Amino acid sequence: MVWSSKDLLGLEGLSREEIEFILDTASSFKEVSSREIKKVPALRGKTVVNLFYEPSTRTRVSFEIAAKRLSADVINIASETSSVRKGETLVDTGRNIEALKVDIIVIRHNYSGAAQMLARHLKASVVNAGDGWHEHPTQALLDMFTLREKLGRIQGLKVSIVGDIAHSRVARSNIWGLVKLGAQVTVCAPKMLIPAAIEEMGVGVTEDIDLALSGADAVNVLRMQFERDGENAFPRQLDYFSNFGITQERLKKAKKDIIVMHPGPINRGIEMSSEVADGMSSVILEQVTNGIAVRMAVLFLVAQANDRIKNNEDAH
Amino acid sequence: MKTLIKNGYVIDPANGICGIRDILIDGKVISKVSENIRSAADVTIDASGRIVMPGLVDMHVHLRQPGREDKETIYSGTKAALKGGVTSLLAMPNTQPPMDSAVNIKLLKGILKKDAQANVFICAAITKGRQGKEVSDISGLQQEGVVAVSDDGSSVDDKEVMAEALKKAGLNKVLVICHSEDKALSSGGMVNLGIISTRMGLRGMADEAEYKRVARDVELAKEYSCPLHLAHISSQESVKIISLAKKKGVRITAEATPHHLSLNEEAVLGYDTNFKMNPPLRSKEDVQALKKGLKEGIIDVIASDHAPHTENEKEIEFERAEFGVIGLETILAVGITELVEPGFLDWPSLVEKLALNPARILGIDKGTLSPGKDADLVIIDKEKEWLVEREGLISKSRNCPFLGRKLKGKVEYTFLGGKIAYKA
């Protein structure tokens, strides 16, 4: 197949084939990072801007490394250091970046829908690196890449997602992707952190962590954000750990070869115990490594698609 | 000066007319409606194949002046109204300053006298500063000609304050209009609570924020036997409550907007802020219930809730964008396209919802083609299709949810007080 979109905004709008195509492309890029000279010329002469309106280290660094291993030039813009603070609108900021002849904008934004809005107004490619509570497609893709690498497939797997589902873009993107690829997904959280009508996205819902772990091939543990003020905040960190934290004891009752994932950064002793985070089941650091390959694939595919779109326009 | 409108298909539910008639206008008023009028006239308009109906009475319009003339002015808003066939409208009080005192009403009346291109009736604020704390001087407002009061945009949370307002309004024969929303239940929400808010990663607004407040206000209306009008109803539960109360004889009336009657929550999935409004677009089931309620007379009125906002306030991130959409120029065509064309509502019912009922509810002498009444009427080509485009809009703002849609039914002439005030 041919990837045809200039943007990657979320997994909701993608087909199973498109998702598998990104994962396959990522497989072919993974080897680059283990070479002595970790670079291919696929995006030589292209410019990538990481436009981050939220503090982020890991996602931003992962995108930056991915772009550099494809030989692109990379500029990082954080909201604290830009005109964003001076009240410029997102679309104006985007147009200014585009006027600098930038090819790809990787955007992280605290408002849901921000990436979509930017993509609608720009001819440059837009890659969503997380928008509000909405989607974080590359995180879900790297989670699925890791699952596929570890277990050989996604079809038929039982995957549980544990934690603050309501406010999680990682959860939403994972649900869309996993369900499309045929996994059986269960979300597990205290009731107040389960968003309305989530089962209509094709997932099971439980408040019982042991039930969520029982029979699961993998558990994806979300970061709890206790700093979120007031609304829906889980009252006490300790309560959370005793009711939902992943421990060795709990894993003993689960499948022996269950895989434990986490998008990071981990709150040790809150979402999971240190033994689990560092234990045999954990693939957390492999996720980080795979993030590079997945983001290389995404940057490569959207750039290629946009080149084709522009060539077609020139031809007419 | 006499104008004769020949051979139009006249729909005037107040007089039980629905058929081909001639209408003779003498000066400002309607002189005669009957078949084959042979009187001489200065101007004769051939309305063969056209619908002729009373001018629309839109009882929910934000004209924004004074205070936010960048969004809309009395002039631009009433011009837009005429283009949409609206000859009378009720201006909402959430201006700057708000219409909560006789002094401010005088200020507004001064501008209206100078700039209004259509009949503008005034809705004042229920409470001072629209703060929900202290009831406005309703008798003083009434003496300035105010016909209704509303804190539209907010509900009066304090039950005691609302009760006092209803009593005073009842005594002064001023209609109370409720924006039914318990902000404790909807606060921070921006789309309908459910699968759509979950998919979009946005805070949801529960329908119970509306219907619980509807239930409270209906109870108050019953207790104080004061007429009450419920603005922009959006949920099926509200329709049920209103239906039950009406059966019990409570004097309540209700309106729905063209967008809540024709669009459901899925429209908002692309984060297009032209679908962001309060109350939010609801589920398909809610839309069906609203339409059914409209047909059965549980919902009396279609009103636009015309709420202009500048591009700076709309062309931004969904979560930051203002609530509200414009509707004066599309209210009639949406009614025709979405309700009459599919056979859901007949023409006389549509005219009732758009002209006769709102006039009766407001107690204003409009909405009919009775001889002796002001000649406010519209001539419509009901077959004419047109594309809603930004460039074609007369309103100062462009936040229309029907942009890019093809609608059926176009106003050819709008008569205001016997004069052609708009011609396509």
Describe what you observe in this structure:
The complex is a heterodimer of chains A (316) and B (424). Chain A is α/β, with parallel strands linked by helices. Chain A is built from eleven helices and nine strands. In chain A, the strands form two sheets. Chain A has a five-stranded parallel beta sheet with strand order 7-6-5-8-9. Chain A has a four-stranded parallel beta sheet with strand order 2-1-3-4, with helices on both faces. In chain A, helix 1 (16-30) packs across helix 11 (284-315). The longest helix of chain B has 16 residues, at 208-223. Chain B folds into two domains: 2-51 and 374-386 and 406-423, Urease, subunit C, domain 1, CATH 2.30.40; 55-362, TIM Barrel (Alpha-Beta Barrel). The mean pLDDT of chain B is 97. Chain B is built from 13 helices and 18 strands. In chain B, helix 4 (159-172) crosses helix 7 (208-223), helix 7 packs parallel to helix 8 (236-247) and helix 8 (236-247) runs parallel beside helix 10 (284-295). Chain A binds chain B through residues 12, 89-91, 109, 111-114, 116-117, 131-135, 169, 172, 195-198, 200-201, 231, and chain B through 188, 193-195, 197-202, 204, 270-271, 312, 315-320.
User: What's the overall average pLDDT of chain B, rounded?
Assistant: 97
CATH architecture of the largest domain in chain A: 3-Layer(aba) Sandwich
- Determine the CATH superfamily of the largest domain in chain A: Aspartate/ornithine carbamoyltransferase
Largest interface: A-B, 25 and 20 residues
The main pleated sheet of chain A reads as: 5 strands, parallel
The spatial strand order of the largest sheet of chain A comes to: 7-6-5-8-9
Assembly category: heterodimer
Instruction: State the secondary-structure class of chain A.
Output: alpha/beta
For the record, the count of structural domains of chain B works out to 2
Class derived from helix and strand content of chain B: alpha/beta
- Averaged pLDDT of chain A: 94
